[in-house]
Amino acid sequence: MNPLNTRFLCRSMTSCGKHALEHLPLELTAVGAKKPLVVTNRSISALKGTTHLINAFKESGITVGIVDSVNSSSGIDTVKELALLYQDKGFDAIIALGGSSPANLSKVLNLALSQTHGNLKTLAGRNKINRPLNSMFYIPAGTGSGFETAGEALVETLEFSSMFLMPDKVIIDPRLMAADSVSALAAQAMASLACCVEAHYTTKDPLVRAYASTGITLVMENIKPALKPLFAGGKPGGFFSRLPYGKSGRKPGHQNELAALATAAAFSGYIWSNCPELITVRLGRTLGRFCSTLPGLLMGALLPTVIDYFAIKRSPARSDAVGRLLLPLAGVDIFCATPEGQRSDLAPALIRQLTNRLFLDSRGVVPRTLGDADISFGTLEKLLAQWSPKEDFGPGNEALRIILEHAHAGEPVKQGENHVFA
Amino acid sequence: MQANPSNREKIMYLPDYYEFCCAVKTIAGHKALEEIPALLSTMGALKPMIITDRGVSGAGLVDTVVGAMAGKIALGPVADDVPPDSDLKVVTRLASVFREHRCDSIVAIGGGSVLDTAKAINILVSHGSDDLMAFTGANALKKRLNPMIAVPTTAGTGSEVTIVSVIADHEKRRKMLFTSPFLLPDAAIIDTRMTLTLPPHITASTGMDAVSHAVEAYTCLAKNPLSDAHAFEAIELISTHLLKTVKNPQDREGRLALATAATLAGIAFSNSMVGMVHTLGHSVGSVCHVPHGTCMAILLPYGLEYNMHRVEDRIAELLFPLAGDRVYASTPPRERAKAVIALIRRMNQDLFDLTGGRHCTAFKQVLNGQGRPAVCGLPDLEAIAQTALGDGSIFYSPEDLDFDDCMLVLEAAWDGTPLDRSKIKKG
């Protein structure tokens, strides 16, 4: 595939693996920070997620402040309070620790502290931020949405979107990994998979493909072993006894596998920042507003059908692009061993096989189809009515209707069924 | 391969710890230069200084860049006297020019030396300093620098995506190394027009330079999954387009593919380091002044032969991006690593033939112009081996290297004969 007129930016440095946290003081020093403010939530600090972080600063000479009161309902008032605290106490960098809530709030807090022109309301929207912000670090802990590293933030109803919102450093340490529900972890992993897969087959940019292929393989190799201890607990959909980070009693490899999924999530955030048109992610997020199922799970249920839709015209280029997915999904040996004409069928089949298996192992918590997720046809109609008709799917969104109906039933979209495609 | 509880063999190599960063906006295309004014504008820059060398300006490439920017942004001075070996005095002088003209950003057009010089100038002007020495070493920079855009012209070095700058202090006969994430340019502009006029032998050697970056990134000790993925993409693009583009220099798609691949390979190696091919190549360059790309092309098959007993599986995997799925599938697994080495030798030989012998496959072929004796003579090899032992990349070679090992490889590479692998001290 030849690169043509491509553009890519990943502003974040990624550090992954054993003792990654211990690199944090050095990384802060490298950007001239001496007094960072950690923004997190109580569930992270209660489970000693912050303990490892504090220990990493021992003998570093760096003073750390911690605010652990952030949650999903924290809004602009919280941003303002934290901004005052940050300035009064002389903090000079922000570390978001946790999942979506700390990440969202920290990005907007950083914006409030960095941007001298305009207030937060005028900066909301797409690409209104025109210069680099102060240094911000993100450290995943627990599970997230899969898009914490993206150049976007949502606080209350204000949505911000800019590459400058991407964290400067993303530090992934297995000791901070924990998962307490199948649905949250599976949603994060399937969101990553959907984002990486769709980016991989729709882009010509080899830089995007490099991140996407790595993210795909990380999910494919780690999702089952990461979820397995949660399946064994007997309550796949519910919460398990919460244990301190790093001392879960699970087999030692488990946290490495969670860290691998967190890494894939970091990559999907980078990709989403560069490829904001990915249909699976947009559909999953929009549908998620109409139901209680996590958007990542909906993305997983939609993904194979969206691939079908892309490949249905069977142009050689599209078929090759989908077939090429087999490389990160199954590895170079299986890719090369599979005849070219079979690859574009096998790739989505592998994804279907994965979601079917997770459906079985999770006793239905991970949906194979939109029907499994209890999405009603009425909900699909709502989505169709809301989706702008000029986008993506041609006149009347007829193709979108076909995708949604097939994803609802779990039926592959095939040629020769009188389907209308844009 | 590791066993996996999910009954799926793990195919990805995951080190215990790794870091990956390339915070450079990369824009590639046939008209990518036209994006520069808008890019500078989004960074708040109003007046860029253009830094380049005489070769680049003489080839008319600066005119092309200026033409793409003209009328859209005020242009500062064009400094086209950067020497091939970046120099402290030049940095200090050009920093003064930047200040005199009240510039606020830099557009650097060229190869490694130009980009290194531009990075160093940016250190001085962003810190309001004349003392470059105060910023040497790792992470001595504590703040963002002025906006800088890199326009590479060689499709090989990858300097546009590295955090490093090397500046020589010729008076004190030393080289100063600067490393900091702040040295990454804000954007790399990969435009076909910048490499369209490269002569075939330079296209060949810079292409093989990029292959060596990618192959060493993939096979040496500091690899990680993202550097692997970038390396894979780079190798596939180069193997598909290098010979075709050397045959047909006006192949714009090929030019774009090669330039993009060089950037990918640069990203890969700057996040994973390189190994003995560079260890020896740097030293051949230092002692005998053989061009870097030529050194890489000659030494690459030897580096793989030398390390094959350590990383045969990794080398074998490269058969896919080098030769495609059919060759990979039809080659027995134990033969794949050898096939990779044979293919790289074949590429070198094809490039030798296509360039009328200007792309060398052995050091004895590197002539000092007009048929004069080899630039790199057999008596030089000991000095090269001695120099190699002090090169930082030596630590990333899968198999250890001592003086005798270096000589073993250098003698074979001088003559152009395959390495006698029975003589390698294993472990």
Structure description:
The complex is a heterodimer of chains A (422) and B (427). Chain A is an alpha/beta fold. Chain A folds into two domains: 12-176, Rossmann fold (3-Layer(aba) Sandwich), CATH 3.40.50.1970; 182-235 and 247-409, Dehydroquinate synthase-like, alpha domain. Chain A is 51% helix and 9% strand. Chain A is built from 17 helices and ten strands. Chain A has helices spanning 24-30, 42-46, 49-56, 76-89, 100-114, 120-123, 182-202, 206-232, 253-274, 279-288, 295-311, 316-324, 326-330, 332-337, 340-361, 377-386, 398-409; strands spanning 6-8, 13-17, 36-39, 65-67, 93-98, 125-126, 136-140, 152-155, 158-161, 169-172. In chain A, the strands form two sheets. In chain A, strands 2-10-7-5-3-4 form a six-stranded parallel β-sheet, sandwiched between helices. Chain A has a three-stranded mixed β-sheet with strand order 6-9-8. In chain A, helix 11 (295-311) packs across helix 17. The radius of gyration of chain A is 21 Å and the shape is globular. The two termini of chain A are 24 Å apart. In chain B, a hairpin with a 4-residue loop joins strand 8 (164-169) and strand 9. Chain B starts with 16 loop residues before the first strand and ends in a 12-residue tail after the last helix. Chain B contains 15 helices and ten strands. Chain B is globular. A six-stranded parallel β-sheet of chain B has the order 2-10-7-5-3-4, with helices on both faces. By secondary structure, chain B is of the alpha/beta class. In chain B, helix 9 (276-288) runs antiparallel to helix 10 (292-317), helix 9 crosses helix 14 (381-388) and helix 10 (292-317) packs antiparallel against helix 13. Chain B folds into two domains: 5-16 and 199-423, Dehydroquinate synthase-like - alpha domain (Dehydroquinate synthase-like, alpha domain), CATH 1.20.1090.10; 31-194, Rossmann fold, CATH 3.40.50. Chain B is 48% helix and 11% strand. The chains are: A alpha/beta (422), B alpha/beta (427). The interface between A and B is large, with 55 and 58 residues.
